Amino acid sequence: MPVPWFLLSLALGRNPMVFSLERVVGPQDAARCSTGLSCHLWDGDVLCLPGSIVSAPGPVLVPTRLQTELVLRCHKETDCDLCVRVAVHLAVHGFWEEPAGEEEFGRAADPGLEDPKNASLQAHVVLSFQAYPTARCVLLEVQVPAALVQPGQSVGSVVFDCFEAALGAEVRIWSYTQPRYQKELNLTQQLPALPWLNVSADGDHVRLVLDVSEEQRFGLSLYWNQAQGPAKPRWHRNLTGPQTITLNHTDLVPCLCIQVWPLEPDSVRTSICPFREDPRAHRNLWRAARLQLLPPRGWRLDAPCSLPVEATLCWQVLDGGPCQPLVPPLPRENVTVNKALEFPLLKGHPNVCIQVSTWEKLQLQECLWADSLGPLKDDVLLVDTRGPQDNRSLCALEPSGCTPLLSRASTRAARLGEQLLQDLQSGQCLQLWDDDLGALWACPMDKYTHQRWALVWLACLLFAAVLFLLLLVKKDHVKGWLRLLKENALEGAAAARSRVALLLYSADDAGFERLVGALASALCQLPLRVAVDLWSRRELSAQGPLAWFHAQRRQTLQEGGVVVLLFSPGAVALCHEWLQDVASAPGAHGPHDAFAASLSCVLPDFLQGRAPGRYVGAYFDRLLPPDSVPALFRSVPVFSLPSQLPDFLGTLQGPGAPHPGRLAERAEQVSRALQPALDSCFWSRRTPGTGGGVGPEAGDRT
After folding, report:
1. Which residue in 575, 463, 552 sits closest to 502, CA to CA?
2. What stretches in the chain show pLDDT beneath 70?
3. Collapsed DSSP state (helix, strand, coil) of residue 413
4. Which of 111, 193, 367, 489 could form a disulfide with 353 if both were Cys (CB 3.0 to 4.6 A apart)?
5. For residue 15, what pLDDT is reported?
6. In the sheet that 298-302 helps form, which strands lie side by side, from edge to edge?
7. Which positions, given as ranges, span the membrane (predicted)?
8. What is the pLDDT of residue 125?
9. Can you tell me the distance from the alpha carbon of 352 to that of 332, in angstroms, rounded to the nearest whole number?
10. How far is CA 639 from CA 132, 281, 351, 617, 665, in A?
11. Contact, 50 vs 35, CB < 8 A?
12. Three-state secondary structure along 637-663?
């Protein structure tokens, strides 16, 4: 059945003449011979082992020429793939030897005839096919009757249907006999490509240009080609060519494929997947991946495409340190995307998290039980390891490692080792996992924390009593002190209720870092708790920028705090790189640059509308024009410092902000603290040769 002109004009070139390709129905391979020959195709593929060349014991069959033809293999009426048909031409090679009284390999002698010259010839012909990523070898058994056996003459051909290949692929075909009497034949062929489709990037958009004739009507579909389950359609239109389709770069994923077909009865559809190796598509895939809890103890990794990932459970402590993997005793597990999996646990716990990684790189971490079982608890995880001959060891999992309970270490678990053992024996600990290798127990530490706070409160009461006595003895002298004490008490109460502010910035140069440090120090004088990577270099180096930011962001948002994005020329450049998916040059960011690492978590919050109430933007006067802040980040308040300091401080402190007069006074204090560092940073950038730099390129000047 001829294929519609539309598909052939796309695949084989824009030619006014009408082409047709033969259809091969069904998935089975087949072989046929020219007149006079008999042939048989062996079931299944064989190993591709040519072996060494051996001498022919007499006349033998050898391949002399290869021919190919494109056909369509159709599994259904409208489901066809391009296929390569191969024809092998055979000839007789060699002569009979005298005397010739023995049977020769490859010759099927008639037992009724003693003269071997009247015997037929048999050969095993191998066809080897390679088209990345496919490689196949098939074996054809051919027999030639004695009447056609003439040394040096062609005897006919054998045809194989067929090797499937993709449009645009380079195919290589070899043919030889077993055993091999001569050098194998080989043929390399470039299959027709798709000149009608062009994929180009234009800023934040990707353009699909379909160059077909103006009269041709065709269907266009975009879908996710998922390894598990059927394809998931995303977009479908009936169009008239030519057309230019514009996609947002955030819609690209590796399994996004394009299918085109003419709007005709029994039309053949052509599919290609051009984004499999696109770095932008792989980044978007991880941004779209989500971990989901399935009651009672199930979970699932949701993602548009298949991912070669491993998952492991880890224990997240309350103080925001790194999540400790539970390996051993619980091993890593290969994960199938969009498939429900079971936790190997007896019960859930908010501190148990899942880490998903690829090739030793952490990609996702979620504490799935934190929503249903509440926030993280101040519990310690006890690891009970069982060895041979009933040997047992018990240790507490801490950031420094697994600490034996009855040890002299200076950790909290070691100091409370005996109490924790008593809690375990009295049934106060929750068993999370148990098997022949050991067990996991979560033991609460709240009561030990309360004991320490009781001592603190007792000291406060004693101090208050002494102060009251002093007030009675020297009433007049302490009036001024009492006034100051009252103000300090109010400040202390506000500090206890103060919000957490996490500062994120790009380390453009040393002057800008000093300016950020001055801002952080000034904010600490207010009822604010400030977190900034300048004060956490050791933790940043130990955990890495991404893990450090992930822990700080989670703690800040859990406590109702706010993340402050400080925009500078370098920060704006990094944002544009991410928004335009331009890969950063290796080594362009410093090892402590938390801003570059944090964009992978910050951008999804803005793209999905979760930023308002969580984020605040700011930039410094004279260092950055107001319109330089990317439009995406203007969904949250963006302030100019120090000119808008009162509004900035009011937003940071939230509902607990003081009255406007007090707020203006604090803004003046912060402005005075910032001005020297701001002037120094501004003039260092205005003066050539002072070592100032902007953006990631600043590091190249040294």
Report:
1. 552
2. 1-20, 77-79, 96-117, 167-168, 192-196, 228, 266-268, 327-330, 449-455, 457, 475-497, 581-594, 656-657, 687-702
3. helix
4. 367
5. 33
6. 290-294, 298-302, 341-342
7. 453-473
8. 95
9. 15
10. 55, 34, 37, 6, 18
11. no
12. CEEEECCCHHHHHHHHHHHHCCCHHHH
Q: How far apart are CA 22 and CA 17, in angstroms?
A: 17
Comparing C-alpha atoms, which of 91, 222, 98 is closest to residue 152?
Answer: 91
C-alpha span between 180 and 72 (Å, rounded): 32
Q: Which two tokens stand for residue 45?
A: 């593929």
Q: How far apart are CA 152 and CA 581, in angstroms?
A: 64
Beta bridge partners of 652: none
Spatial contact of 504 and 563, defined as CB atoms under 8 Å apart:
yes
Integer angstrom CA distances of residue 220 from 261, 262, 494, 639: 7, 9, 61, 46
> Which pLDDT value is given to residue 493?
46
Q: Return d(Cα 46, Cα 137) in angstroms, integer.
A: 5
Residue 501 and residue 176: Cα distance in Å, rounded? 74
Mean pLDDT of the chain: 79
Which is nearest to 323 in space by CA: 550, 113, 147?
550
d(CA 426, CA 385): 19
Q: What residues have CB less than 8 Å from 24, skipping those under 6 apart? A: 30, 71, 72, 73, 74, 83, 85, 161, 162
Q: What is the pLDDT of residue 204?
A: 76
Q: How far apart are CA 163 and CA 561, in angstroms?
A: 62
Note whether 316 and 375 are within 8 A (CB). no
The reported pLDDT for the residue numbered 7 is 45
Number of neighbours of residue 330 by Cβ within 10 angstroms: 20
- Other Cβ atoms closer than 10 A to 267: 18
The Cα 592–Cα 548 span in angstroms is 10
Whether the bond into 642 is cis, omega within 30 of 0: yes
Segment 43-64, tens digit of pLDDT: 999 998 888 989 888 889 999 9
Cα(312)–Cα(676) distance, rounded to whole angstroms?
50
d(CA 528, CA 546) in angstroms, rounded, equals 24
